[in-house]
UniProtKB/TrEMBL annotation:
All copies of domain PDZ, residue ranges: 192-255
Protein name per UniProt: Zinc metalloprotease
EC number, UniProt record: 3.4.24.-
Annotated localization: Membrane
Membrane topology, as annotated: Multi-pass membrane protein
Swiss-Prot/TrEMBL GO biological process terms: proteolysis
Pfam families: PDZ_6, Peptidase_M50
Any one GO molecular function term: metal ion binding
Cofactor names: Zn(2+)
EC category name: hydrolase
Ranges annotated as spanning the membrane: 113-138, 370-389, 425-443
Source organism of the structure: Anaerocolumna aminovalerica
């Protein structure tokens, strides 16, 4: 099921991408030699004839080059490996004659054809986002918890305030606040927060404060508060608590879920006072004590935005559907920036194998909640992947759409095209580099999984 779902999601995203190139090529009168889903040898091919379509299993390269139908009509193919796809146009990678060749079309027509692939990915992400928002709503950036005597409370923020700007970044969704803090960790510098309260605008300047920490990670969800990470030389590690243990109480207060654990910490911020932690391991209950430590390079402001969704009307579906796409596009760009600056390691990259594993984990986690939940989860993954593919293809890397756009824009500036043989050589080098990267990511995925 994991593989089937992955193939379906990949196929839809790739078909839409290539359909963008195909549609604009047809609109500009460019002959498309082949439109295919997948890579490798052809399994089924369809060739249009005057009386309909002619299909042939395992269309050979010889057939492709010699059949009269292939010379004047587009071949539609499904290929063996269900990754990738192609829209092969006459004159795209070779010099061709005639007014139907890509290389003989005006430069802005060629730019529109190349840009259409990523654009269609963004359109697909927008459509899926509107579906999700129309069914379950959006997550408003509303403050859910404020820690007592925290910098946020001292600055005048209140539970229920809707954040509209955080650190200079415009905010539409609650996730944007969390993502901002992930990519721009708090320091001792003031941070400006703009908000709405009862329809009125407000502004607060918050001075972050150093954190007292126990040194562990968990998921603040509806499931039990299971510890996912325990950091070396931190209080919880010193107390003997391990990853996989489930916290059931703190200082005698019962903790049923990860959400309750988050709520407890907001209502009872950590100080230098000793904390009693009750946890389960292999069905047995234990209690340990730990003294939180003040961490010099860790700061907090004492707020938590909501994790629930609110229904909205038709205009809201359009607005927040666009906000969803913007969120994933900007997150992808921020992630690339972190990678370039060395703040994210190459080992954090994921390829097709890693994505299949992620889809599988998501399916297993949601299948018990019904078909609608599975569909919404897969649609959300589709938004993430489609937005990622759109952004990645626009990068100015040879062999990608962005690399081709660079050469076309240079042609606009120069007033004449770049030598096609030299451009083809650059794209070939880029393709080799991408293949090497794919091999690295494949081994990285396998290493992470096994």
């Amino acid at each position: 099921m994991n593989i089937i779902l992955a193939i379906l999601i990949f196929s839809v995203i790739v078909i839409i991408h290539e359909l963008g190139h195909f549609s604009l090529a047809k609109a500009n009168g460019i002959f498309v030699k082949e439109f295919s889903l997948g890579m490798g040898p052809r399994i089924i091919s369809f060739v249009r004839k005057s009386a309909g379509y002619r299909s042939k299993l395992f269309l050979s390269q010889h057939d492709y080059e010699t059949m009269e139908e292939c010379k004047s009509n587009t071949v539609y193919s499904i290929k063996l490996l269900p990754i990738g796809g192609s829209c092969i146009m006459l004159g795209e990678d070779e010099i061709a004659e005639g007014n139907k060749a890509f290389n003989n079309k005006p430069v802005w027509a060629r730019i529109s054809v190349i840009f259409a692939g990523p654009l269609f990915n963004f359109i697909l992400a927008f459509i899926l986002s509107m579906v999700i928002v129309s069914i379950i709503g959006y997550d408003p950036a509303k403050i859910q918890y404020i820690t007592k005597d925290s910098p946020a409370e001292q600055a005048g923020l209140m539970v229920g305030d809707v954040i509209t700007e955080f650190g200079g970044k415009h905010i539409n969704l609650a996730r944007e606040v969390d993502t901002y803090l992930e990519f721009h960790p708090l320091t001792g510098k003031d941070i400006t927060v703009k908000y709405k309260r009862d329809g009125k605008k407000g502004e607060a300047v918050i001075t972050p404060r150093n954190n007292y920490m126990l040194g562990f990670g968990y998921t603040p969800g509806k499931a039990a508060a299971e510890i996912s990470d325990v950091y070396d030389n931190m209080p919880l590690a010193k107390a003997g608590i391990k990853s996989g243990d489930i916290i059931t109480a703190i200082n005698g207060v019962k903790i049923a879920t990860g959400v309750k654990l988050s709520q407890y910490f907001f209502e009872n911020p950590l100080t230098s006072e000793e904390v009693a932690i009750t946890y389960e391991r292999n069905g047995k209950s234990y209690t340990a004590t730990a003294i939180p430590e003040l961490v010099a390079n860790s700061f907090n402001i004492g707020i938590s935005v909501n994790s629930y969704r609110e229904k909205t009307g038709v205009l809201g579906v359009l607005r927040y559907g666009a906000a969803e796409v913007k969120f994933w596009i900007t997150s992808t760009i921020e992630g690339l920036g972190q990678l370039i600056r060395g703040k994210v390691g190459a080992e954090d990259l994921a390829g097709p194998v890693g994505i299949v594993d992620f889809i599988g984990d998501t399916y297993k986690a949601t299948k018990s909640e019904g078909a609608l939940t599975v569909f919404l989860s897969m649609a959300n993954i589709g938004i993430l992947l489609s937005a990622n593919l759109g952004v990645m293809n626009l990068l100015p890397i040879p062999a990608l759409d962005g690399g081709r756009l660079v050469f076309l824009l240079l042609e606009v500036l120069r007033g004449k095209p770049i030598n096609q043989e030299k451009e083809g050589f650059v794209h070939m080098i880029g393709l080799v580099a991408l293949l090497i990267l794919m091999v690295f990511v494949l081994f990285n995925d396998l290493g992470r999984i096994f």
